[in-house]
Write a structure and sequence with these properties.
By secondary structure, this protein is of the alpha+beta class. The chain starts with 5 loop residues before the first strand and ends with a helix.
Length: 79
């Protein structure tokens, strides 16, 4: 079986937060893929019972750098 290319970086609640993180990482040349249950992001987004949860995956080769950048992103949000 082929080795997986992607590694789970984090999970966030809501597509908007996921898109912010994706944009931030892609600006740093990190490959990013988002995964969310399809019912969670239709015309009326659902954010209850975990349906609004979005998983953020990054390339395995870039995972260490992505984790460092995510820490920087989270620290900047808290400031």
């Amino acid at each position: 079986m082929a080795e997986l290319k992607w590694e789970l970086l984090t999970e966030v609640q809501g597509r908007l937060e996921a898109e912010f993180i994706k944009s931030y990482l892609e600006a740093q040349e990190i490959d990013v893929e988002l995964f969310q249950e399809s019912v969670g992001h239709h015309i009326y987004p659902v954010t209850i019972n975990g349906l609004g949860r979005v998983q953020i995956f990054v390339s395995k080769e870039q995972a260490v750098e992505a984790r460092r950048l995510l820490d920087d992103y989270n620290n900047a949000k808290e400031s």
